[in-house]
User: Fold these one by one.
Assistant:
Number 1:
Amino acid sequence: MKFFIGNWKMFGVPKSINILHKINFFISKDKNRNKYRAIITPPYTLIESYSKYFRRKKIIIGSQNCYKKDPFSSNTAAVSPYMIRKVGATYTIIGHSDNRAEGDSNTDLKSKVELALKNKLKIIYCIGENKTQKINKKTFTVLKNQIVKVLNRKLKSNNIIIAYEPIWSIGTGKIPNNKDLLKTAIFIKKVVKKVFGKTLPVIYGGSVDENNVKMFKEIKEIDGFLIGGASKSAKKFIDIIKNYYR
Ligand code: PEP
């Protein structure tokens, strides 16, 4: 099973549902539709209405983050895993580099992961090195730490996807070369296997678009994509899926 996951970030108003109508229509007719799952993470404001609408359709709705406390607490503007689940989300992203940069520590992420799983949310756990770490050949050390400091064997591993998102690639148009990406995906799977005793899906994120997606096809260790910018356009998101299976 492959995953095409759209992260809308701070984008979208109620009528942006038209983008999802188009994607849903395409998937419902796509001969490859049983080979993949399409997940969209709109902002919190749209989760409830979109989840209701797409409940029995071809798009699964998730959130982009969740708070580290549950179910209710005195934290202004925070939204807990319990609240997210109750409005219909199935997945949540945890550990996106945007949120790590805004202060999410490994301890915060650990409690987010535990609480999200407790609320039956499936997790897209993001990891990735920055440019300096890459230049200094620290990528594997960074990735390993991001995995072992947050995930552990007691967690329900069936509900976890790992998203490898090199920070230098997000929104920059730069993507890793195939050889590096293959090596990194194999490394991540090895670390994950040590933690859980089995491998988990590993997806790639960072400047994926309808043109470069073909290059990732050869890397069988990549189980799908986390797509930022290109997921805000129905045409681009659909073309990514089409070109991947072409
Ligand atoms: C992201 O922010 O998760 C992302 C992958 O963004 P983009 O596709 O725009 O690089």
Note: The mean pLDDT is 97.
Number 2:
Amino acid sequence: MRLATRLVLGTFTIVILTIVGLAWRSDQTIPAVVIIALAIALVVAWFAGRAIAQPLVVLSDAARDIAAGGTPRFPRSGIPEVDTLVEALRRMHRELGDRMVELQQERVGGGAVVDAMVEGVIASDARGIIVAANPAARRLLGYGPDARLPELPSLFRDKVARDAVWQVLAGREVHDCEFDRDGTVIAINARPVPGRGAVLVLHDLTELRRLEAVRRDFVANVSHELKTPLTSIAGYADTLTDAEIDPALRQKFVATILSNAHRMQRLVDDLLDLSLIESGRWSPAAQRIDVGLAIHDAWAPMREKAAARGAELAVSIAPDADRIWADPEALRQVLVNLADNALRYVPSGRGRVECSVERVGGGVTVSVADNGSGIARDHLPRVFERFYRVDPARSRDEGGTGLGLAIVRHLVEAHGGSVEAESELQVGTTVRCWFPDSPSGDS
Ligand code: ADP
């Protein structure tokens, strides 16, 4: 039998027995006996009530502590019903703690994922007040990590973006809404969260759009480069179909056709080289090379052209830089392209092209310098781009494809090296190619 029941039953038994026992003796004593019995019953009931109530009070304090997230103190009552309650509350407290830890971990994990995302993520409440924005979103929109963000409708200046915000706050989804913010191309995708606000995802499309523009320009450039010689070939070939044509003229037309065909061939060869290097299918088979020998071999076929222009080809190699770690064929192509350019721009009869080699910071620099017309300051940073020419007509007339320096840059960079150009108008140009030593220190 439970303690509370025992207490109550015990109290009633004492009271009944006392009343009955005293009632036998005298009728006059009954009221006094009843009062005494009731007093005893009250005292016993008070103790019994206290024994039950006390742990319940502690238990309700414990429940309050749990609700407030504090550390509860659980009572020890000895009353089985109360103990069962205490145990249930204790278990609930334990499970609540575990759940809180799980939630915390999930929240931290989820937050870390959102923070690490490349896409910008912004969450706002239904009024457009921003409640969360990850670092990528701040970076894309030009806000520092601690800067206060305005409300969503004022976050964007661009009309397209503002319309997108109003749309999502009105409960409609937004798909790939693209706009330009100070040169950064951003696409917004947004979703309303019913009753709670909206989530916006921002994608940085700048690099993608730039690459698309490069590809468009490339196709346009190649088409243009091919169109001119092809038109010329077609025109002269058409004229040659006339049987009456003067033999000397015929010879001249054939020569023009041949020269244009060679130009197309050079262009296609350069394009194939460039696409091979850029595709990543080619990597340099570097080896230790005698740099003096490499320059001699590469420039041997150019000596005739240099002599025709009255230009001098010179070489100077620092004693500690006579060996270079490079792919022999790539180094040959670099030397040929640079000398070819230099010879094209040096003044007739007094041109000088010099290749100097020296050790620079853990590698070897091969520089080709000329005393030619030079490159204007604003063109200089772009000469390593594909098809970039300072004077397109002159370059074409002299057999240039506009790809020579782009190929040089790719070849050198494939070795882990770097290129730079320095120039002064009417003084000359120097192109430097730095090749790092072999990782194992063989060079
Ligand atoms: P191209 O086939 O036209 O020479 P490159 O890529 O080799 O193409 O060179 C790009 C442009 O850089 C050239 O058209 C020319 O305007 C300029 N350039 C390159 N090398 C020299 C140089 N040594 N002197 C003057 N200009 C040069």
Note: The chain is about 55% helix and 20% strand.
